[in-house]
Amino acid sequence: MAEKRKVEDELIPSSNEHVKKVATVTSVSEDAIRERIVILLGYSGLGYHGVQINEPLKTIEGDIVHALQDLGYLKKEKIDENKLVIARSARTDKGVHTLGNLVSINVFIQDSVNPSVLREQLNEKLNRQIRIWDVFKVHKYFNPRISCESRTYEYMIPSFALIPPKESTPFFKKSQKNLNREPENELESLLLSSTAKARSFWEQVENKREELKKEFEKDPETFTNPFTGIFPEKPIPAHIKIPNEAKLKKAQKLADHYYCMHYRISEDRLQILQQILQLYLGRHNFHNFTVTQDPKASSNYRIIESIECGKPFVYEQWEWIPVTIRGNSFMLNQIRKMMAHALMVIRSCARSNVLTKSLSPDVSMNISKSPGHVLLLKDINYSSYNKSLQNENHFQIDLVKYRDQMEKLKEEVIYPDIIHLEKKEKMFFSFLAYADQHTKGQFDYLFQ
């Protein structure tokens, strides 16, 4: 089963129960004809279990099929499910966002589809998280996955993810071996010096924690948490009394979160991240970055065409580092594990060759995956496909004309969803805390 889900952008099996259900409730005339259309769209993945139909879970394609059902583009009578043939440029998993993706599907209509009308109808029917940029007809053999040459993703790293771990954590204690060694190259030298400076961050946090403790000791009953309201919290029933000690512990924990939120990355730390990420460039075996049964299988090889750190920016007080990565295709969890591995190499001051070793089919590493709610499919490339259509009357696939609409979706929907979820669920904090407190051997490859 893992192998079937391995490639992130593989075809959806159209013979699932959800498609059967929606394909039997729509009223379309018996003389309706079948046309293959492509829907170009963007969406926020918040609350969705990916793009692929997976009944009974809420998915992007599930919502689209429901909308087409309501608009009368699917037959009422039971049809051959294989004729629906849903496919896409790239498959996005739970919580992952998209600025531009293609979904192709067969619809059943009496007259030829009017793309502009259908686009407007879908935008009216779908919720604001899903926006349709365009609809166009293609020949019946068009496969958006196969025709797509490359995909470009953006991964948003919160700057605080590059802060070294607290000195009291097991992760830091294991890192002592790395911190006390002699650097073997310029990158390792820069990493060691930058880590020494970055560790001063925790001094100001500890000062704040001590300040909170003194305020608490003055009068535990009237102690007020100064960070209340900054992070969403579950309401506490009025009849439940919170122990005073718990009040202090909570305030100190939120102090950690608050100071991390306001952390700003240094130039040398950003330079290190860029140099570490550059080690992924080229064709490599990414068996440690996905689910696989055979490390040496040819399907584990992928080409990373480019990977760049963008300029850090502040959004609602949080600083984020956009990492743009382009490749021919990506496997399940690959990007999330790539980002997690780079972060752990930096936070542990590991040897720089730890990353290159992870790309060897002869080395096995149990690499964690970083949170997925900050992953965004940014672009899809159909250059060769477009060139093949220059002498034909077919729609060429180019996202440039939709950039303004895409930026609006990103600024008004996707970014707010990312921030809201991080504030509420603290997913990156939890991911880093898990690594820092881990006492078993999962991360031992960083300290060899």
UniProtKB/TrEMBL annotation:
Xref: Pfam families: PseudoU_synth_1
Domain Pseudouridine synthase I TruA alpha/beta, chain residue ranges per copy: 277-382
CDD domains referenced in this protein's UniProt entry, alphabetically: PseudoU_synth_PUS1_PUS2
First-listed, main subcellular location of the protein, grouped into a coarse class: nucleus
Keyword terms of this UniProt record: Isomerase, mRNA processing, Nucleus, tRNA processing, Zinc
Subcellular location: Nucleus
Role description: Formation of pseudouridine at positions 27 and 28 in the anticodon stem and loop of transfer RNAs; at positions 34 and 36 of intron-containing precursor tRNA(Ile) and at position 35 in the intron-containing tRNA(Tyr). Catalyzes pseudouridylation at position 44 in U2 snRNA. Also catalyzes pseudouridylation of mRNAs.
Protein name stated in the entry: tRNA pseudouridine synthase 1
Native source species: Schizosaccharomyces octosporus (strain yFS286)
